[in-house]
Design brief:
The protein has helices at residues 88-94, 138-145, 150-159, 177-181, 201-204, 206-213, 226-241, 254-267, 275-289, 333-348, 354-357, 422-437, and strands at 3-6, 16-22, 29-30, 35-40, 45-49, 54-59, 65-69, 73-78, 244-252, 295-298, 301-304, 310-312, 314-316, 319-321, 324-325, 362-366, 385-399, 402-416. By secondary structure, it is α+β, with helices and mostly antiparallel strands. α9 (275-289) packs across α10 and α9 (275-289) crosses α12.
Length: 444
């Protein structure tokens, strides 16, 4: 009996992923430890290793398929002594038809034909359950049951074309982009049924919004990738479920800038320290000085963390990711600088491991390089606080009754009120101010 290869869970919270690429084909011999595929999660691209030795007999999930559930069977491996793999030509019949590259990033497009009547043997075999497609109307549900590519469905929806009236020219009668473009103008889809009485879901459904508000020729629809989809879901939950509030202060950073310049001159070719590296160190020390602020809300109680794991927001294509500087309170500025540079580079290439972007206890988001004076971030759950850092710039300040010019940095601390109340957040900012405005205190 063939050995099933299943979709692995690449992180504790992973429920599904995208099978980005197969690195093997039917008939290839693999051994334990060989890389056979690349899987994309919401944050990174990970390699999948074979755990057994044998011959790849079937590839059950097409490369590029999104929404593959964890533990779903994606391929089969025939071990030595069993029946060999089918011929390549036969194997191609078992595969899903090739996906149009223009539709990359949308839902899986292949709907398998109705299975034959199950017998006692086939009923016990694992199978890949197709991902349910949530449609906004009866029309989109019918379209999902047709053999059609994501791009074809998108164009048909934008142009008001009924896919059921088209004949597909793709593999196995699949409707592709060219079929939609050739469709007669009179092939319109039925009117969209309204949602349940009193409900608001139909009013905010993106597909309905696109057609009712904006003319199809006036915009380009960019498919949601995994990063954007998960980020939207998590931040919406954070904004709605976590009662949070901002605390804002201005910091004088002239002394910090002088210290940074002296440190970088002393380091020479060993590396360079950034202002953000020094803020990470100061934040970590402030969390240790105010441990009530280094906490997360859970249903069972408040999780007070024993170490400062500082997440830093890094912009990547399609969203952002927060790689973590672990135990930042114990690390020197040069070590922090080297880690932040390495993590940021690999984050942009989506090559971080789950343990490198999960488990933070506090976040820093810095938009100062874009000239943003101040802003307030949404909490990064399950962390209890996030610090928003603006641009450090010369401003007029009053000292001892005299107007002077100083470099001022505005920061905003967003707190989860279930964990950090106003006084706790304010005390944390006092410690943070001390470390920033007198950076030599970070050496004590």
């Amino acid at each position: 009996m063939p050995t099933p290869i299943t979709m692995p869970a690449l992180s504790p919270t992973m429920e599904e992923g995208t099978l980005a690429k197969w690195l093997v084909k039917v008939g290839d011999t693999v051994k334990s430890g060989d890389i056979i595929a690349e899987i994309e999660t919401d944050k990174a691209t990970m390699e999948v290793e074979a755990v057994d030795e044998g011959v790849i007999s079937k590839l059950l999930v097409e490369a590029g398929t999104e929404g593959v559930k964890v533990n779903a069977v994606i391929a089969e491996l025939t071990v030595e002594g069993e029946a060999g793999p089918p011929s390549p030509k036969a194997a191609e019949v078992d595969r899903a038809p090739p996906r149009e590259t223009e539709g990359a990033g949308l839902e899986a497009t292949h709907t398998p034909p109705s299975p034959p009547k199950a017998d006692a043997e086939t009923a016990t075999k694992p199978s890949v359950a197709p991902r349910p497609v949530q449609a906004s109307s009866a029309v989109s549900k019918n379209a999902a049951r047709l053999r059609s590519s994501p791009l074809a469905r998108r164009l048909a929806s934008a142009q008001g074309i009924d896919l059921a009236a088209l004949k597909g020219s793709g593999p196995h009668g699949r409707i592709i982009k060219a079929d939609v473009k050739k469709a007669p103008k009179g092939v319109a889809k039925p009117a969209i049924a309204s949602g349940p009485a009193g409900g608001i879901s139909s009013l905010i459904e993106p597909a309905i919004l696109d057609e009712r508000v904006y003319h199809p020729d006036t915009f380009e629809l960019i498919p949601l990738d995994a990063v954007r989809r998960v980020t939207a879901r998590r931040l919406t939950q954070s904004f709605m479920q976590a009662p949070h509030f901002p605390l804002e202060i201005d910091l004088s950073i002239d002394h910090l800038l002088s210290a940074r310049k002296a440190i970088n001159e002393a380091l020479g070719d060993k590396g360079k320290i950034s202002v953000n590296d020094m803020l990470i160190k100061a934040a970590a020390l402030a969390l240790m000085a105010q441990p009530d602020a280094n906490a997360s809300f859970t249903d069972k109680g408040i999780a007070r963390h024993k170490s400062a794991h500082v997440s830093m927001a890094v912009a990547i294509e399609g969203g952002l990711i927060t790689p973590v500087i672990r135990n930042a309170q114990t690390k020197g500025l040069l070590q922090i600088a080297l880690e932040t540079k390495d993590l940021a580079a690999r984050a942009r290439d989506r090559r971080l491991k789950p343990q490198e972007y999960m488990g933070g206890t506090f976040s820093i988001s810095n938009l100062g390089m874009f000239g943003i004076k101040s802003f307030a971030s949404i909490l990064n759950p399950p962390e209890g606080m996030i610090l928003s850092v603006g641009e450090g710039a010369p401003r007029a300040v009053v000292r001892d009754g005299k107007v002077e010019i100083a470099t001022i940095l505005s920061v905003t601390l967003t707190c989860d009120h279930r964990v950090v109340d106003g006084a706790t957040g304010a005390r944390w900012l006092q410690h943070f101010r001390q470390f920033v405005e007198t950076p030599e205190s970070m050496l004590l």
